[in-house]
Amino acid sequence: MVPHRSHLASLAGLTLIAGLVAATPASADDGSEIAPLHPAPSAENGEMTHQADGLWFIELEGPPEAEGNSEAAVDEEQRAFRAGAEEHGLQYEERHAFGELWNGFSVEMDDAQVGTAREIPGVNAIYPVMRYEAPEPDQSQPDLETALSMTGADIGQNELGLTGEGLRVAVMDTGIDYTHPDLGGPGGFPNGRVVAGYDFVGDDFNAGDPAATTPVPDEDPQDCHGHGTHVAGIVGASGQVTGVAPEADLGAYKVFGCSGSTTADIMIAAMERALADDMDVLNMSIGSSHTWPGYPTAVASDNLVDEGMVVVASIGNEGDTGLYSAGAPGLGANVIGVASFDNTHISAASVIANPGGEALPFMPMGDATAPPTEGETDELVYIGRACSSLGDQLEGDPEGRTALIVRGNCTFAEKYDTALDAGATGVVVHNNVAGMFAGGGITDRGAFSIGVSDEAGAHLRELLEGPDPVTLTWTDETVRTPNPTGGLISSFSSYGMSPDLDLKPDIGAPGGLINSTYPMDQGGYATISGTSMSSPHVAGAVALLLQARPELAADEVRTVLQNNADPKAWWGNPGLGFLDNVHRQGAGMVDIPGAVLATTTVSPGKLAPGETREAVTETVTITNDGDAEAVYDLGHEAALGTHGNTFTPSFNDAFAEVSFSADSVAVGAGESVDVEVTITPPAAELSQPVYGGYVTVTRADGETLRVPYAAYAGDYQEIEAMTPITDGDGNVRELPWLTRITQCEVFVGLECAASGGGTFANQPDGATYTMSWVDGLPDYPYVIAHFDHHVSQLEMRVVSERTGRPVHPTRNVAVDVADVGRNATSTAFFSYVWDGTVSDAHRIREVRDGEYRLEVRALKALGDPDDPDHWETWTSPVITIDRG
């Protein structure tokens, strides 16, 4: 049996032109696979998202007020839903009603009620309320200097005189320690820097703890966690640390308690408050991976931009799960979704390796005991991977010694526990690729654990081959050391595209190993890695840009930033000279001075032709905001593409061919000129190919602006959605399954809420169900399904075995959800419970005892519902209902 969470999955023509001027030659007919020098390291310390048990968004058909609807009309539609819910017998508890940015409700109800809710007149769609975990930090010394220089924020501050003064930046997070001397303190709230905010949840709130899921809001957004203070420091600290916009006003919108997680509906409530507080920029270092841009947090964010607020969001830390892993709200069509690049330098504590006396920088790992600042370790011994779950035999005996372990193949927590179970007194993990790392997920067992670079690991292992014992001498010294992966995409940064083939992420900024402010009672400063850290770099950049160019509208800011960003080399082998995937880095590293000083704009800021089987033509508009006529040359820079397995993509140099209606244009001062851009997809025969590059617009004085593009080459609906999985023993298991739940500790309704979900038993020959609780377990049929790719619509229909027809002529669905996200891994799955009822337009009713089958229908991403080839179907074995 395979344990997994048992919840529903995430919800939510161009003209061909020939004979144009050819740009830079490209290999449209050829392409070779490009292998990285090293495999991508796993993102063991990434932020996690889950569905909140029993919580759902119900979206109504009418638009919200931000899209032109009246408050009275929204109120009337919501009253009609409540009346319809009562008529249908829907059993639910209303949590929040939204009308300004998104029209609908968040409710608590059993998952088995979702089909009923979908049938209530006026309901447009139903989505799960996602739960968001905030990552834990690794302590280090305060230093943002190198990260600021990567974006040119230092030039913006020191040479252009920009500080963000007069701009208001909202930080939706764990709150802000407004007593921090770098953030306005000491003193109360509000103060001169943290000028607005609200606590939506209270310190004890934790959406992942059934005993702590009731918010207790108050007026004080003090941060008792740390993440929000770190993010706020990147945006605008002023003191020992200097943020990107050190004089911007900050808003603290606290949506997390002191630990654990929050929910998406609370995020929307915070968005509405930030709008009421007249914030100019909203930073959300939060996201739900593998979602659709129609998810409520993304739609509400889009409407914020329409209302005049620039919205910046992290794109996600799920790079190790492959393509289409980006998440909402960063997937919003108007949102600036931010990728992460590694910092060029690392400030870290150091330890002396004996013999030899070489100082080695290190990063503390997770919640393990903090390493000392003096004294010497026990003798060091190398024990290998230490992945007990994979059957590893330790390569050395760590009893009474410090264990040296290589990173990879299993979690940091497993390595730590394996070593300590074997008697180790401390743990050192060395990287398996270039660079430092900050590991997490460890629960302290009274022993230290630190992470060192691959170079340091090689040095220690070389010492171990010598005749003398190897020990480490602790110091209180810190060192600044170059990061070998500095300036390259972070291993954890999520891939696009969006499942609707929009180009995401939009842009990148430093996010790997960033030092910033932290609550004073937790040390004052910390190092954290994540797109949570790259997003506030861009939010601060927006504040500087708007200070310099206040005439820019909210929906123009992203274009200016993308035009002037700097794409970076491929992480896999920078020496080859290839640019990294556009659907991984977007426009590239944000360039603040470039955006501030630019006198030309090329719009749109990105091109996303979508599914391309032949050449497609788009139009870009070049606007000259200078005081003299300028001549611009059009060009093309190709970037590496991806193909093959979604979860572990391969890389290729099968480039598109790009041509223009003119190779050069003259644009008068204050005028605009349109240029047609024709993109011919690569002809190489590859599986699931995604390609991209950059349209370049270069002025005679050397100023170069870029428009990133990315697209899918071929038939997007050829991607199979419902696929088999391979279990931990290497056995291929065909899915979907008909199953029953056999083990679970905690239930919410019929759904297993225990960590890791329930255990299911496959019923390939069908089964009899009593539709009741037996021995503490729900004796209901579950369908297990795995999705390799996102699904536009998922239906589960009830068919009578006796007649071979649906049990109701018009409405017989047990499940009907839109915008289902793919599974995070190739072995994960979702479960769907049927409670023995069906809905029609007026009521819910139980089916009679008897024999039935469940027909599962999945509409492929962007599929045509009227095209049978775009649906995948599966019919269950016979389900016998015998209520006794």
Describe the structure.
With 884 residues, the protein is an alpha+beta fold. The chain contains 13 helices and 51 strands. The strands form twelve sheets. Strands 2, 25, 27, 28, 30, 32 and 33 form a seven-stranded mixed sheet that branches. Strands 8-9-7-11-12-13-21 form a seven-stranded parallel sheet, with helices on both faces. It has a seven-stranded mixed sheet with strand order 16-17-18-19-15-14-20, sandwiched between helices. A hairpin with a 6-residue loop joins β27 and β28. α5 (227-236) packs parallel to α10 (531-548) and α6 runs parallel beside α7 (296-306).
Low-confidence stretches: 1-29, 42-49, 138-142
Strand pairing plus helix content: what structural class?
Answer: alpha+beta
Report mean pLDDT, rounded to a whole number.
89
Biggest beta-sheet profile:
7 strands, mixed
| Helical coverage, percent range | 10-25%
Q: DSSP strand (E) fraction? A: 25-35%
What are the key terms here?
disordered N terminus; 884 residues; single chain; globular; 7-stranded parallel β-sheet; alpha+beta
Question: TL;DR of this structure?
Answer:
The protein is an alpha+beta fold.
Write the SSE topology.
Elements: E1 21-22, E2 33-34, E3 49-60, H1 71-88, E4 93-98, E5 104-108, H2 114-118, E6 123-133, H3 145-151, H4 153-158, E7 168-173, E8 194-199, H5 227-236, E9 249-254, E10 261-263, H6 264-276, E11 281-284, H7 296-306, E12 310-314, E13 336-342, E14 345-354, E15 358-364, E16 380-384, E17 402-406, H8 412-421, E18 426-430, E19 448-452, H9 454-464, E20 471-482, E21 507-512, E22 514-517, E23 525-528, H10 531-548, H11 554-563, H12 582-585, H13 592-597, E24 600-603, E25 607-612, E26 616-624, E27 630-643, E28 650-652, E29 657-660, E30 664-667, E31 672-680, E32 690-699, E33 704-713, E34 725-726, E35 732-733, E36 737-743, E37 747-748, E38 751-752, E39 759-762, E40 767-769, E41 773-774, E42 777-778, E43 782-785, E44 791-800, E45 813-820, E46 830-833, E47 837-839, E48 844-846, E49 850-860, E50 871-875, E51 879-881
Parallel strand pairs: 7-9, 7-11, 8-9, 11-12, 12-13, 13-21, 16-17, 17-18, 18-19, 25-33, 40-51
Antiparallel strand pairs: 1-29, 2-28, 3-5, 3-6, 4-5, 6-10, 14-15, 14-20, 15-19, 22-23, 24-26, 26-31, 27-28, 27-30, 27-32, 29-31, 32-33, 34-35, 36-39, 36-43, 37-38, 41-42, 43-46, 44-45, 44-49, 47-48, 49-50, 49-51
